[in-house]
Amino acid sequence: xxxxxAEYAPRIEALAHKLGLDYHPVDFELVPTTFxxxxxxxxxxxxxxxxxxxVRYIHELIRRSMGHSRIFEVMFPGxxxxxxxxxxxxxxxxxxxxxxVLGHADFARNNQLFARFEQMAxxxxxxxxxxxAHRIEEAVxxxxxxxxxxxxxxxxxxxxxxxxxxxxxxPDYPTEPKPPxxxxxxxxxxxxxxxxxxxxxxxxxxxxEHRRAPIPSAPEYDLLWFIAHYAPELEDWERDIFLAVxxxxxxxxxxxxCHIMNEGWASYWHARLLREADFLPESLYLDAVKAHSxxxxxxxxxxxxxxTVNPYHLGFSMWEHIVEEQGIxxxxxxxxxxxxxxxxxxxxxxxxxxKLGLFVYEARSGGEIQITGRNIDAVREAILAPKFNYGAxxxxxSELRHDGTLVLxxxxxxxxxxxxxxxxxxxxxxxxxxxxxxxxxxxxxARGEPHELQKQ
Length: 456
What we know:
About 55% of the residues lie in helices and about 10% in strands. With about 450 residues, it is an alpha/beta fold. It is globular.
């Protein structure tokens, strides 16, 4: 960083430490707008090459040109944290962004969900992702663009289908069935008599030693992991691509699952740091406060209502409410222990929701929007619904048949959604291309009618 921002940044950091923020060191870097766009679209400074990121880049460029999107900064948790600030930001904006990043860094170091994934994936994701991208480029040189891109198509189509409740590095299924935990039949007179009935003995030629445990032993929701380990014809480099996409998906999950908390926490601290930074010139402070108001407003300037929640506004309002009502130490405890699900369900109360004007609505035919209620439980769940299961339908591997057929089941009762069958069919095409055996998906459509999709 250069100029006046470089002069203020150390003083803002000193104030942050004085107020109790605890974070890994932050490396700040000023970058041009084009670089920032690429980082925001790819999700990392260097990431595996794929055509879908180009599509996202064009989409983001259009939104930016229409005034619907502006990126001030991007911060990557780690040790050190990496923070990129746009060089064309004003001095006031970059002063605010510096304080905002320190709030993010504090959240990332202290939140338990971030800490768990950091422990599994390490603290150098930027360098690790760059190394993975390099290996994929080498695979392109060895196996050709078309083959590598086909594998990436499938892996990125399944990117959200990981089981974040499991470990990043987990063993394969056991090959032998688990021994029964209940009492042995020989020790139980009733079980012993039952086992002696005709037809209850083991079939001739099949011994307990040759029985294999079922695969999967229970519904398996980590599709990327399952394909990487059990696809019958994948080559090692193809498995590596699936595992690389899975690892990045694990890395991004805390950011996704704590978006409201994290942006709100960073906004709370940038506001407080600016307020207590008596070393800032008054004109700079006023301009920074104006930038703060633009960030945490509930809706765009020309609108009086919005149908989407601004996570900056909601999170900032909730943290201010919590600190005012319960104190900063209680806020820190919540910061450590919760994700957005616990945060919104436990701390978005009826009075605050009413103050923020939150409501539930439904879209009707002809584009009509009708408010259906302001019940606090319904409001909370409407905010959280897009965050369930990484925002993706909950699909599990239910069976791997002897002929290699892969059977998938959509747990629509849990995610509360039917599938767009055309889109689901396209994703199955990608999956079938790497599984290379029949694939079956049991699901329901948007009306709840059951369907079985097959790829032979």
